[in-house]
């Protein structure tokens, strides 16, 4: 084949491959009449035109047109002679081919002379794609060893084809095919084949028999006209590409005769009714898929609370403890809920204890890593506040007590600390500075070191504001403490509220509310302040109406 830079066509289709068809026209020309083939687009617009073109090709011995469907097996003259004898058929595929050939001969329905195909299951490999020659071909005949090595390395090409060629007395080129692992310089096709994910694909080959009319079926005159490959993603590769209007490709047979051929895409287009049915089918398929997803996900989503309520979700983690006096640390924690706050689930625990972690030295610091998770789901309602929300909003607080446990199971208090939950949603990582009570004199510290035990707090809320304290000032003068280590806490805060969103709907309409909903959800503090001011104005109006 005279290579003139034939292009490779790559197409994508979601339709089934069984409707893919091409028309191949093979024509014998003389040396002085090698001209590009005219376009046959107008003739092949209908199925009747294709059948007329095929009949004309069979009547004209120099021209043949054949319509080939995807993975359609068309037998050559050599294959018909081979598979006609059932003794030559060993595998299940060969037995099937025997039945097909017998049926074709009985019906007299042979529609091709020179054009035939190799499908996916046939033992054929394009040598230009899979094999390269290791030595330069010469006129010498291949030795017995070279023939056997060639047969082993080219298993897919078929042992029978090599045996047939040897039986006819045709010499094999003295060349050993091999797979080349490195291509220098790489072509575009080799780069695409080697540097992308190898997806499952199927191939078929459209062949041409260039033998003389009285001696059709010569293996030496078989030429590859077109390679069609389709993968699992609907990508169809045609090599060479369709050329209904461009120049044809040319072949020279062993007798010196010139042949040209044209490849066209002749798949039938869908009618308007079929397109409508397909669109309706896809809509039903998508609706069923949506129903399956909705049934799998469910509808048990937590709805936002009323205008007076806020949902607060805390997903936290006790990350590490640094620079504490003893080893084998663990952390006890407790959640304090101010007025107006409650648990979303009454079975939810607000206290817990972490795992025991041993310290290790890192950057001149003794660090104990916990990675202990905890979570709370809280609800806030202004109706539960006794003073009607006239004061400042108090956020819940987390109290921590760091303890140590030694080999003799002696427990020691290493430090106390507290953390106020953030008002705004987001991700936070905070360091909690801790301290521990200090007894009077040296005896307390000696008891702590030798036999364990140390002063402890009866109420962990004393680290912040003791429970039940009423007043504006509180003095802790005289309470002796000593600085301890640092506790690292990571928090993920999520809030859910409709307060501010409803106000925007009333003032600016639904469109503005949808535009600003994302920003409004993160403004929890502003929403509570706005609600508090509105309640205060309502109380003033009620008091003025009394007088």
Q: What tags apply to this protein structure?
A:
547 residues, six-stranded antiparallel beta sheet, five-stranded antiparallel beta sheet, 11 helices, 29% strand
Helix content: 25-40%
Indicate the radius of gyration in whole angstroms: 43 Å
Oligomerization: single chain
Number of helices: 11
Low-pLDDT sequence parts: 31-47, 130-134, 151-178, 510-522
Q: SS-based structural class?
A: alpha+beta
- Total count of strands: 21
Q: How would the global form be characterised? A: elongated
The major beta sheet can be summarized as:
6 strands, antiparallel
> If you average the pLDDT, what whole number results?
76
β-strand percent reads 25-35%
Distance between the termini: 109 Å
Q: How would you describe this protein?
A:
- By secondary structure, the protein is of the alpha+beta class.
- Helix content is 27%, strand content 29%.
- The protein contains 11 helices and 21 strands.
- The strands form 5 sheets. Strands 12, 14, 16, 17, 20 and 21 form a 6-stranded antiparallel sheet that branches. Strands 1-9-8-7-4 form a 5-stranded antiparallel sheet, with no helix packed on it.
- Residues 31-47, 130-134, 151-178 and 510-522 have low confidence and may be disordered.
Give a brief description.
By secondary structure, this protein is α+β, with helices and mostly antiparallel strands. The protein has 11 helices and 21 strands. The longest helix is centred in the middle third of the chain and has 26 residues, at 272-297.
């Amino acid at each position: 084949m005279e290579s003139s830079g034939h292009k490779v066509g790559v197409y994508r289709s979601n339709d089934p491959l069984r409707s893919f068809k091409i028309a191949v026209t093979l024509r014998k020309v003389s040396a002085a009449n090698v001209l590009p083939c005219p376009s046959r687009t107008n003739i092949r617009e209908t199925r009747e035109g294709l059948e007329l073109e095929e009949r004309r090709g069979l009547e004209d011995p120099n021209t043949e047109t054949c319509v080939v469907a995807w993975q359609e097996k068309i037998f050559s003259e050599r294959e018909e002679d081979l598979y006609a004898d059932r003794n030559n058929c060993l595998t299940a595929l060969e037995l099937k081919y025997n039945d097909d050939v017998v049926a074709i001969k009985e019906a007299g329905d042979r529609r091709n002379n020179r054009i035939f195909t190799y499908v996916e299951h046939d033992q054929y490999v394009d040598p230009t794609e899979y094999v390269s020659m290791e030595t330069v071909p010469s006129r010498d005949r291949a030795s017995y060893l070279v023939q056997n090595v060639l047969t082993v390395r080219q298993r897919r090409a078929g042992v029978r084809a090599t045996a047939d060629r040897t039986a006819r007395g045709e010499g094999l080129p003295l060349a050993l095919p091999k797979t080349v692992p490195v291509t220098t310089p790489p072509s575009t096709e080799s780069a695409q084949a080697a540097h992308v994910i190898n997806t499952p694909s199927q191939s078929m080959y459209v062949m041409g028999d260039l033998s003389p009319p009285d001696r059709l079926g010569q293996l030496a005159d078989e030429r590859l006209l077109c390679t069609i490959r389709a993968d699992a993603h609907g990508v169809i590769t045609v090599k060479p590409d369709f050329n209904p209007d461009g120049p044809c490709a040319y072949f020279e047979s062993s007798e010196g005769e010139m042949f040209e051929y044209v490849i066209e895409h002749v798949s039938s287009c869908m009618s308007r009714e079929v397109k409508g049915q397909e669109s309706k089918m896809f809509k039903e398929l998508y609706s069923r898929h949506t129903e399956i997803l909705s049934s799998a996900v469910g509808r048990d989503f937590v709805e936002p609370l009323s205008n007076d309520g806020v949902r607060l979700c805390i997903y936290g983690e006790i990350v590490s403890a640094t620079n504490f006096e003893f080893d084998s640390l663990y952390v006890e924690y407790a959640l304090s809920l101010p007025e107006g706050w409650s648990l979303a689930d009454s079975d939810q625990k607000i206290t817990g204890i972490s795992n025991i972690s041993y310290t290790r030295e890192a950057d001149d610091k003794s660090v104990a890593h916990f990675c202990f998770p905890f979570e709370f789901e809280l609800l806030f309602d202004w109706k539960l506040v006794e003073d009607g929300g006239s004061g400042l909003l108090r956020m819940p607080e987390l109290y921590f007590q760091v303890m140590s446990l030694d080999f003799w199971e002696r427990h020691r208090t290493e430090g106390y600390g507290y953390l106020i939950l953030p008002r705004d949603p987001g991700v936070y990582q905070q360091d909690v500075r801790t301290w521990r009570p200090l007894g009077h004199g040296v005896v307390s510290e000696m008891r702590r070191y030798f036999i364990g035990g140390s002063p402890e707090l009866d109420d962990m809320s004393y680290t912040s504001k003791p429970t039940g304290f009423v007043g504006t000032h509180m003095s802790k003068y005289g309470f002796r403490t000593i600085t301890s280590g640092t506790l690292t806490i990571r928090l993920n805060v999520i809030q859910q509220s409709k307060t501010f969103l409803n106000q925007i709907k009333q003032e600016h309409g639904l469109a503005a509310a949808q535009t600003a909903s994302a920003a409004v959800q993160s403004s929890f503090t502003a929403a509570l302040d706005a609600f508090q001011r509105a309640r205060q104005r309502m109380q003033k109006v009620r008091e003025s109406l009394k007088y």
